């Protein structure tokens, strides 16, 4: 059996053909430096960068002057949090985030604690949702930044971003959101949702790796990230990765076309997979919110079995999935996200995340359900964890 089914699109996505096509000529034809505006080759590169900037900015209802290119989601998260913390330390030293953030946020907050900053890590409920009342009661006079992810990469839960934005605005606190998983999957409007800073990454929506973006609302005080030339209005120096920026722009352009159709088709396929697993395999627990979740995310815990064993058997059948997040598989610590939702270690260990794409067919879904059914039966039959069978 040579079937290959890639269901790890939250880890990264295949680069779309149209994106590759668009990028190609920026390697060997239009290879000018965007800063060399004195001749045409340079101007063409500059134009390509600015066109991509406008495409991405339009997609999130930002002004193109508020959009900065970075090397990806991790860089944007680092910049947002460190940049705001250091630039606003005269106003306070307190940051509010959640227990389920990506490590690019969590480890940055931990780093800042060495410099006298303090962090409050908000709890989440069993569905991975924060509590707006706890957010409000965590605000202190010293709070300078709220950083709460838009949608979680492991369990897919989507937070009430607009309400968080309103609370931040009322208290005059800067609001950053890591929207790496949300971009291209939900409608984002930075103005309406009162978002001050937002992290994005191209490779999670069909673009190339190593390129991302950050939205910075006009007037937000933030330290420059890279000192050097005047690129990105002096905030992030270094010759632009023109071909990557072009690829990011194209990926966003494709995502913005037929957006509603794409999302509803994805949701339909996701629901088939969710229902199929729930109805065919006993003793499973859905992780994440049943409805307020990303249209491509299916995450269940399978009682009495180890996620790592499931992954190995899935791989033998040509199915790529993930247990916990890609960054943590390889270590045996259960995912911090699943533990934060209240799962015990055993149940957290038995979790598998499938993240589908628009290429995922009904045939794929049926094959995955059937394969999972067999794998779980096989593993439970030999499981030392399953008592009283
Ligand atoms: C993938 C991911 C990141 C990191 O993005 P990179 O571009 O890979 O650095 C950050 N946050 C979330 C929620 C992600 O899913």
TrEMBL record:
Keywords: 2Fe-2S, Cytoplasm, Iron, Iron-sulfur, Metal-binding, Pyridoxal phosphate, Transferase. Pfam families: Aminotran_5. Pyridoxal 5'-phosphate binds at residues 73-74, 153, 181, 201-203, 239. Residues 5-366 form the Aminotransferase class V domain. InterPro entries: Aminotrans_V_dom (IPR000192), Aminotrans_V_PyrdxlP_BS (IPR020578), Cys_deSase_IscS (IPR010240), Cys_deSase_NifS_bac/arc (IPR017772), Cysteine_dSase (IPR016454), PyrdxlP-dep_Trfase (IPR015424), PyrdxlP-dep_Trfase_major (IPR015421), PyrdxlP-dep_Trfase_small (IPR015422). It is an enzyme of class 2 (transferase). Its cofactor is pyridoxal 5'-phosphate. [2Fe-2S] cluster binds at residue 327. It is found in: Cytoplasm. The active site is at 327 (cysteine persulfide intermediate). GO terms for molecular function: cysteine desulfurase activity. The modification N6-(pyridoxal phosphate)lysine is found at residue 204. It catalyses: (sulfur carrier)-H + L-cysteine = (sulfur carrier)-SH + L-alanine. Its EC number is 2.8.1.7. Pathway: Cofactor biosynthesis; iron-sulfur cluster biosynthesis. Belongs to the class-V pyridoxal-phosphate-dependent aminotransferase family. NifS/IscS subfamily. Master enzyme that delivers sulfur to a number of partners involved in Fe-S cluster assembly, tRNA modification or cofactor biosynthesis. Catalyzes the removal of elemental sulfur atoms from cysteine to produce alanine. Functions as a sulfur delivery protein for Fe-S cluster synthesis onto IscU, an Fe-S scaffold assembly protein, as well as other S acceptor proteins. Homodimer. Forms a heterotetramer with IscU, interacts with other sulfur acceptors. NCBIfam families: FeS_nifS, PRK02948.1. This is Cysteine desulfurase IscS. It comes from Sedimentibacter acidaminivorans.
């Amino acid at each position: 059996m040579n079937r290959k089914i890639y269901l790890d699109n939250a880890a990264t996505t295949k680069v779309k053909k149209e994106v590759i096509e668009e990028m190609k000529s920026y390697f060997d034809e239009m290879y000018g430096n965007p800063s060399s505006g004195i001749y045409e080759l340079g101007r063409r590169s500059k134009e390509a960068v600015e066109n991509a900037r406008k495409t991405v900015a339009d997609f999130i209802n930002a002004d193109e002057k508020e959009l900065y290119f970075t090397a990806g989601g991790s860089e944007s998260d680092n910049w947002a949090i460190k940049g705001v913390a250091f630039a606003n330390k005269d106003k306070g030293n307190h940051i509010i985030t959640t227990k389920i953030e990506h490590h690019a946020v969590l480890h940055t907050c931990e780093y800042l604690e060495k410099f006298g900053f303090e962090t409050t890590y908000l709890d989440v409920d069993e569905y991975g949702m924060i509590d707006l009342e706890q957010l409000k009661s965590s605000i202190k006079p010293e709070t300078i930044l709220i950083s709460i992810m838009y949608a979680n990469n492991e369990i897919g839960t989507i937070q009430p971003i607009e309400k968080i934005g309103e609370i931040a605005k009322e208290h005059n606190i800067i609001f950053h959101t890591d929207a790496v998983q949300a971009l291209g999957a939900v409608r984002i409007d930075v103005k309406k949702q009162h978002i001050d800073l937002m992290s994005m990454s191209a490779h999670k929506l069909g673009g190339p790796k190593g390129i991302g973006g950050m939205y910075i609302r006009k007037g937000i005080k933030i330290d420059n990230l890279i000192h050097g030339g005047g690129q990105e209005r002096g905030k992030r120096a270094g010759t632009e990765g023109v071909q990557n920026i072009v690829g990011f722009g194209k990926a966003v352009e494709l995502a913005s076309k037929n957006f509603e159709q794409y999302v509803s088709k994805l949701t339909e396929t996701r629901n088939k997979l969710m229902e199929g697993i729930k109805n065919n395999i006993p003793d499973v627990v859905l992780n994440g919110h049943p409805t307020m979740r990303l249209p491509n995310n299916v995450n269940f815990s399978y009682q009495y079995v180890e996620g790592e064993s499931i992954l190995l058997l899935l791989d033998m059948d040509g199915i790529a999935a993930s247990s916990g997040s890609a960054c943590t598989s390889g270590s045996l610590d259960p995912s911090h996200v699943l533990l934060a939702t209240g799962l015990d270690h055993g149940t957290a260990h038995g979790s598998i995340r499938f993240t589908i794409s628009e290429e995922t067919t009904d045939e794929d879904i049926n094959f995955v359900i059937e394969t999972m059914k067999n794998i779980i039966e096989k593993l439970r039959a030999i499981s030392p964890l399953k008592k009283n069978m």
